[in-house]
Backbone:
């Protein structure tokens, strides 16, 4: 016996197809937005050295006006994050991690905010 396709079954199937298409479209739009860098965002870190694009003459009167690179600014609402990566420092070496070597700057950083130890 063959199952009957009713109008309700077809409507649910069509609705599910539309939802999947909208979901795929929104995922594609989010991926595109995530890949588009903000204006002024460097494509590589650290930023390359600034090279003056103008003409430098024998005196400042013969030179083009100065143009300086603008400082990098985080987007509004971005969290303040300090990531410190230590390699080959020895387990528990710093006092921040319970070691014997005094490290007052690391202690201040750890005491001023959230502190997460790596494993």
Residues:
């Amino acid at each position: 016996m063959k199952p009957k396709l009713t109008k309700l079954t077809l409507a649910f199937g069509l609705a599910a197809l539309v939802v999947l298409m909208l979901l795929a479209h929104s995922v594609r739009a989010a991926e595109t937005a995530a890949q588009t860098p903000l204006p002024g965002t460097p494509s590589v870190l650290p930023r390359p050295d600034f090279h003056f694009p103008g003409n430098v003459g024998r005196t400042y009167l013969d030179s083009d006006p100065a143009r300086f690179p603008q400082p990098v600014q985080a987007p509004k609402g971005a969290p303040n994050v300090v990531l410190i990566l230590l390699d080959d420092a020895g387990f528990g070496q710093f006092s921040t991690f319970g070691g014997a070597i005094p490290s007052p700057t690391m202690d201040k950083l750890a005491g001023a905010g959230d502190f997460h130890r790596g494993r």
Notes: Residues 78-109 form one domain.
